[in-house]
Each structure stands twice: as structure tokens, then as C-alpha cells.
């Protein structure tokens, strides 16, 4: 079993509690390094939709700002116009807001700083700390060396300041082709840290940018933009995932050379979930190749997918709080995420009855044409949710697997000659089984005991099962979409030779039930409304719903396998 990232401490149930990052912040507060300020940010690149891993980063950054009475910025690291789109910017803003992180009036873009970053690059050139290199991409790679061998200096490294200033100016003016030359920092081609071997700061791209249009022909590399953007915004604690640890010396080098304000970068382990892919590049591939219906397909680990699936921001926050932050990468079980949505919906979702695989029941001694209203409890966990009326009639649907003609020993539900309770209704007894020409059961004949209204027999006799049901006449026909894991393998990125993650997609991740039935109280519920379908799981109204036909997504089933795993520990 994969281990959780941190053991929850019962004393620290609220919010993020204490962790290695709060320890660092406390030390800074004690030493006065940032004058007691805590200012964090979430810096997405708008090259895809946000996923649950980003939610961890958002909740961490916003949560720390909240916990310390500090500030939180949202900043787009929009430095690569070949991959970035306005659509992504808008989707990210919507998702961060939905998660509940509040950037107030501090929505920024790295592209706002392009002018400043350019001036700073000129300053480096003047200091002899940067040069224009005419090696092509392959040559740069060749000259860079390897983990075990040092690199070697570019033949262009010793250009004069004047020549570099002139060439950089002309790069900016669009005089060169893409790839013809780059601006590089002059650091150390023999550094054991490859990031310090004269990293590229600017590249030529004749590409329109979603925000700056065609103004620029050169774009800063992420490594040049990121640290300076944090500095401009006076971020105190720049939190990022572990792969940036080796970039930290480079960020510090840039800030020192420029002599500007220095945030503290702190690295933490990125979230990895079983049966889930959290790489934007791969998520884009799933969308573009049509393996899913879009970024918000409810099987996607994206925030928009989880939202459409029925997840709440509260459940996602509780999940990210509970897994905490750590310095070592590990895999979190998907059941743990499911546990939190189940826990949330158990308290917040109203119960309704729905039948997914209908089997018709005719109650022969119930008057034809009669419909009576039975009172049903909306939420046993929340008395204030009240009650509703559910129509009962002579013809009902029950679930196919709630009946067996020849039941084995431990099957307590309906069978020939057996009496069961209908939820909120009466006791019924099966008297006959009707089959079609092929021998399939198509209908049950039953009788009911009028004395058992409300589910109790006056003579005290008991039944062993309570079934959910809907009225044939009054129920709504609806489409129900059942989701399973998108991948059939615990770690979809670990595939056999010659395979890709596409090969381990679960072919049964979506099951559509075209003709399910739901009690009429759900009629007209808005997209996103969440319910517990009694005995079946948690469901929510999908935006594909129309006036003619409602569509429901199963968020999660009822059985909490994570709680079981925890108990076993
Ligand atoms: P890529 O850079 O490959 O496009 P990314 O997931 O790193 O993908 P960013 O938009 O750069 O995308 O991420 C924004 C922030 O979210 C970064 O600070 C990054 O460290 C953090 N982040 C990304 N993935 C995860 C994850 N799985 N767990 C926690 N934080 C993450
Ligand atoms: Mg990134």
C-alpha cells in the first residue's frame, strides 16, 4: 500500500496545521526577515486546465496566507505563447475562484513584467553577465555536457558588451529568425548543477501572445521570468514543487546580480494519485485525441472535471489539508480523495430514490389509478433539510438485482413468496414472476399489506430487507452516467515497453444508463445539484440536462473503502 504523505495529528485538525513550511515561516517571523509578512502566490502557466495537483498548491498557498493573515496572489506565468491560450486563462480563474482562494485585487501576469524583464536583461549584458549566443539548439545541448561531464564554453561567449547589446536589441526588433540566436546568462559551463551552465534567458518567437499581441519577438524563459516576477510582487515564500530545487541557485543568482528583493523559495512534494495522470501534456493528449469528452469530462482529474462530477471545493480542501505537505514524493490513494467527498455529501446531499436497472412490480391488490403521497426524510444527517412527498402507485420499478427467483442463503431481498419493505412505503410480498419468451424476468406480481404504511407491521412481524423504488407512472426517465477509474493500472505512467499511458486506459470507465428512473422531486433541479440516490451512491445533475431529459453523474459510490483501509491499519 502506498503511504500517505503525513500522519494527521488530531491536535491539528483545522486547516493546514503545522508542517515544515510553517516552521520556516515561523523562523522568518522570529528573525524578522520579511518584517512578519507572509505573501504567497499561485503561478499557473495557462497551457491547460488546472488539476487536483494544482488544487494542492492553491490550497497550500492560500491556506498559509490565510493562516498568517497574509496575502495571496494569482499570477499567470504566461511566457510561452506557443502553448498558452485565453481559454485556459479564463478556465483557471474560474477554477481558482471556485476552490475558494481569494486573490482580492492581485491578479497578475508575468507578461505585465516583460518590459521590466527586458531592462534587467540589458543590465546583465552591461555587467558582462549575459551574452547573445548563435549556437543552435542542438549545439547548445551538445556544449552543455552531461551530469558526469562538464560543458564547454560557446565560441560566442566572449562577445563584447556593445555587440551583445546590439544583437539583443535586434533580437527584440524581430530581425532574426526563430532559433537563430538566444540570450544566455554567463554563469559557469562547468557547474555541477546543469541549470547553472549558462541557461538560456530569452528566445526568439514570432508568435502572437494572448495579452501582448505581436509586441514582442523575444520571450523570457520561465527560469528568467519566474524569480523576478516573485520579486516584483514582493512574495515572501515562493512555494514550488521539488523539481525546482535545482533551479533555486539560478533564481538566487539572477536576483543577486540584479540586486533586487529576494523571496524564499521552498520546495514541496507534488501530489501523485493512484489510477490518475496529473501531467498537463498527457491530459491535453486525452482531450485532443478524444479519449474523454473534454477538459471537464467527469473522469478527468481536472478541477472542472471534478466539479462536473459533483465534487465540492470543501471536500477537495479537506483532502489537500489532510494529505499535508512533505519533502518526499509519494503516491496518494484515490480512495482517500473519494473518502472526503463521501463524507461531505453524507452531510450535505439530500436523499432521493432512483432505479438504475428497472424491474417492474405490479401490486395486484392496490387500486388501479390511485396515487398516494408518502412522506420521505430528505437527509437523516440534517433535520433542517425536512421531508418531501414521494408518489406511490400500483406499478413500481425496483432494482433488478433486488430480486432473485432462486435466492442463495444470504440473499434477503425480494424472492417468490417473500415479504420485504419498500422504503417509506408498505410491506410487499412477491406472488408471481412473469417472463418473456426467452425466459427473462420482465415483471413481478406482488401484493401489499395496507396495514404497513410507513414501513411497520402492527403485529410486529419483521422483514429482512428494505428496497428503494419509484412509481412507474410518476417517475422521471433520466440518463445516468456511471464512472469508473480512467486507467486500469495503479500507476498509469509505468507501462510496459512499447506502451504508453493511452494503452492502459480503462475501456469501461464510462457506463451510460439511458433509461434510469428518478423520483419526480428532482424535476428541474439545476446543473450541479447533488443527491444521494438511496442505496446507490452520490449523484449530481449534469449540465447536459434539458427540460426533456435530465442527466446525472455518479460522483462516487456509497462504500467507503478508504475508511476500511484506515481501520485495518
Ligand atoms: P507543466 O509545467 O508541465 O506545464 P505544471 O503542472 O507544473 O505543468 P504549472 O502551471 O507550472 O503546471 O503549475 C502551477 C503550480 O502548480 C506550480 O507552482 C507547480 O509547482 C504546482 N503544481 C503542479 N502540479 C502539481 C502537483 N501535482 N502537486 C502539487 N503542486 C503542483
Ligand atoms: Mg510548471
Secondary structure layout plus pairing:
Layout: H1 20-31, E1 39-42, H2 52-67, E2 71-76, H3 86-99, E3 107-109, H4 114-126, E4 130-133, H5 137-144, H6 161-172, E5 182-185, E6 200-204, E7 218-220, H7 222-232, E8 237-241, H8 248-258, E9 264-268, E10 271-273, H9 280-288, H10 303-309, H11 313-323, E11 330-332, H12 334-348, E12 350-352, E13 354-355, E14 358-363, E15 371-377, E16 387-393, E17 395-399, E18 419-422, E19 427-435, E20 441-449, E21 466-467, E22 470-471, E23 476-483, E24 510-518, E25 530-533, E26 537-541, E27 550-556, H13 561-568
Helix pairs in contact: 2-11, 7-8, 11-12
Adenosine-5'-triphosphate (ATP) is lined by residues 43-45, 47, 53-54, 56-57, 240-241, 270-271, 278, 280.
Please, could you describe this protein's structure?
It contains 13 helices and 27 strands. With 569 residues, the protein is of the alpha/beta class. It folds into three domains: 30-268, 3-Layer(aba) Sandwich (Rossmann fold), CATH 3.40.50.620; 280-350 and 478-568, Ribosomal Protein L25, Chain P; 354-468, Beta Barrel (Ribosomal Protein L25, Chain P). Helix 2 crosses helix 11 and helix 7 (222-232) crosses helix 8 (248-258). The longest helix is centred in the N-terminal third of the chain and has 16 residues, at 52-67. The chain is elongated, with a radius of gyration of 30 Å. The site of adenosine-5'-triphosphate has 14 residues, from helix 2 and strand 8.
Amino acid at each position: 500500500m502506498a503511504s500517505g504523505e503525513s500522519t494527521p495529528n488530531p491536535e491539528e485538525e483545522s486547516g493546514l496545521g503545522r508542517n515544515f513550511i510553517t516552521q520556516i515561516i515561523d523562523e522568518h517571523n522570529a528573525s524578522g526577515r520579511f518584517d512578519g509578512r507572509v505573501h504567497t502566490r499561485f503561478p499557473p502557466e495557462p497551457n491547460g486546465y488546472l488539476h487536483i495537483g494544482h488544487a494542492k498548491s492553491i490550497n497550500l498557498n492560500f491556506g498559509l496566507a490565510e493562516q498568517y493573515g497574509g496575502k495571496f496572489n494569482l499570477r499567470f506565468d504566461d511566457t510561452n505563447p506557443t502553448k498558452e491560450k485565453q481559454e485556459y486563462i479564463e478556465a483557471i480563474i474560474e477554477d481558482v475562484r471556485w476552490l475558494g482562494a481569494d486573490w482580492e485585487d492581485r491578479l497578475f501576469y508575468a507578461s505585465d513584467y516583460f518590459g521590466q524583464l527586458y531592462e534587467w536583461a540589458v543590465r546583465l549584458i552591461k555587467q558582462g553577465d549575459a551574452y547573445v549566443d548563435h549556437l543552435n539548439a542542438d549545439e547548445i545541448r551538445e556544449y552543455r555536457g552531461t551530469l558526469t561531464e562538464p560543458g564547454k564554453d560557446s565560441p560566442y561567449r566572449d562577445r563584447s558588451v556593445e555587440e551583445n547589446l546590439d544583437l539583443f536589441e535586434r533580437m527584440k526588433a524581430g530581425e532574426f529568425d526563430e532559433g537563430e540566436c538566444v540570450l544566455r546568462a554567463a554563469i559557469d559551463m562547468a557547474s555541477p548543477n546543469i541549470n547553472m551552465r549558462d541557461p538560456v534567458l530569452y528566445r526568439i518567437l514570432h508568435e502572437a501572445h494572448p495579452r501582448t499581441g505581436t509586441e514582442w519577438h523575444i520571450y523570457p524563459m520561465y527560469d528568467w521570468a519566474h524569480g523576478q516576477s516573485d520579486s516584483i510582487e514582493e512574495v515572501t515564500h515562493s512555494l514550488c514543487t521539488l523539481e525546482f530545487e535545482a533551479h533555486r541557485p539560478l533564481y538566487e543568482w539572477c536576483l543577486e546580480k540584479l540586486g533586487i528583493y529576494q523571496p524564499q523559495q521552498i520546495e514541496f512534494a507534488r501530489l501523485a494519485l493512484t489510477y490518475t495522470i496529473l501531467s498537463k501534456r498527457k491530459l491535453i493528449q486525452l482531450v485532443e485525441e478524444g479519449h474523454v469528452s473534454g477538459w471537464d469530462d467527469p473522469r478527468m482529474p481536472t478541477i472542472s472535471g471534478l466539479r462536473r462530477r459533483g465534487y465540492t471545493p470543501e471536500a477537495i480542501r479537506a483532502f489537500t489539508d489532510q494529505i499535508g505537505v512533505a519533502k518526499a514524493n509519494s503516491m496518494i490513494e484515490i480512495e482517500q480523495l473519494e473518502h472526503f467527498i463521501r463524507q461531505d455529501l453524507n452531510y450535505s446531499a439530500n436523499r432521493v430514490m432512483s432505479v438504475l436497472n428497472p424491474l417492474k412490480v405490479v401490486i395486484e391488490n392496490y387500486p388501479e389509478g390511485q396515487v398516494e403521497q408518502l412522506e420521505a426524510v430528505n437527509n437523516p444527517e440534517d433535520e433542517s433539510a425536512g421531508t418531501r412527498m414521494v408518489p406511490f402507485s400500483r406499478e413500481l420499478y425496483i432494482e433488478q438485482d433486488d430480486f432473485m427467483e432462486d435466492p442463495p442463503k444470504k440473499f434477503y431481498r425480494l424472492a417468490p413468496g417473500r415479504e420485504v419493505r419498500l422504503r417509506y412505503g408498505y410491506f410487499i410480498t412477491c406472488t408471481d414472476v412473469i417472463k418473456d419468451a426467452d425466459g427473462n424476468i420482465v415483471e413481478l406480481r406482488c401484493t401489499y399489506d395496507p396495514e404497513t404504511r410507513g414501513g411497520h407491521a402492527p403485529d410486529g412481524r419483521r422483514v429482512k430487507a428494505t428496497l428503494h423504488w419509484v412509481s412507474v407512472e410518476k417517475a422521471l426517465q433520466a440518463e445516468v452516467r456511471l464512472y469508473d477509474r480512467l486507467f486500469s493500472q495503479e500507476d498509469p505512467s509505468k507501462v510496459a515497453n512499447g506502451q504508453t499511458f493511452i494503452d492502459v486506459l480503462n475501456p469501461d470507465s464510462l457506463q451510460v444508463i439511458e433509461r434510469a428512473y428518478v423520483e419526480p422531486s428532482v424535476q428541474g433541479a439545476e446543473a450541479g445539484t447533488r443527491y444521494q440516490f438511496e442505496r446507490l451512491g452520490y449523484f449530481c445533475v449534469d449540465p447536459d440536462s434539458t427540460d426533456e431529459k435530465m442527466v446525472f453523474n455518479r460522483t462516487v459510490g456509497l462504500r467507503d473503502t478508504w475508511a476500511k483501509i484506515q481501520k485495518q491499519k
